[in-house]
Known about the structure:
- With 176 residues, the protein is mainly beta.
- The protein has a single domain (2-175), classed as Thrombin, subunit H.
- The protein contains two helices and nine strands; from the N terminus they run H-E-E-E-E-E-E-E-E-E-H.
- The strands form two sheets. A seven-stranded antiparallel β-sheet has the order 5-4-1-2-3-7-6, with no helix packed on it. A two-stranded antiparallel sheet has the order 8-9.
- Strand 2 and strand 3 (60-63) form a beta hairpin.
- The radius of gyration is 16 Å and the shape is globular.
Amino acid sequence: MKTFFIFTLLSLAVANTPKAVLKEYNNSEEYLPENFNVPYMVYLQSSPEPCVGTLIDPQWVLTAAHCSLPTKIRLGVYRPNIKNEKEQICNYSFTVVHPNFDAKLLKNDLMLIKLSYPATINMYVGTIAIAMEPMAFNESCFIPTWTWNNYKNLSDPDILTWINEYSLSPSDCLDT
């Protein structure tokens, strides 16, 4: 049920996202205006691979526990491979890994990161909307992420893209 709640929480972004962005297309850049970003997305620059997090509070980021600890936390990012003047770079003071995290099975794969200071909320950096009720079963969810157009070892991703998933029933979620 915890996974269902987290999935519901993270998938609510669809309600506040421009419809043009939600079109399924391999190269989402054709639909995105220059410097478009998803305000609650957090780029966790780390080695060997970066991770994505979600700003759930001005001082807290939710991400996967299997992610390496970030060397740099970037908020307000459009394309991680390009630095922009609107992004905020933060450090963190500590992390909280789910007490039942299983690295082999990736169960309870959740980690909270406390930023050293609260993010400045503006049109480029914001928190995700929190679900007050569970999503309906099999509802379409668009989950934003970054990927590489041409992967180069140790490079930052260069494309904002979307994954289309469907919500699980509470019983299926418990079995996951």
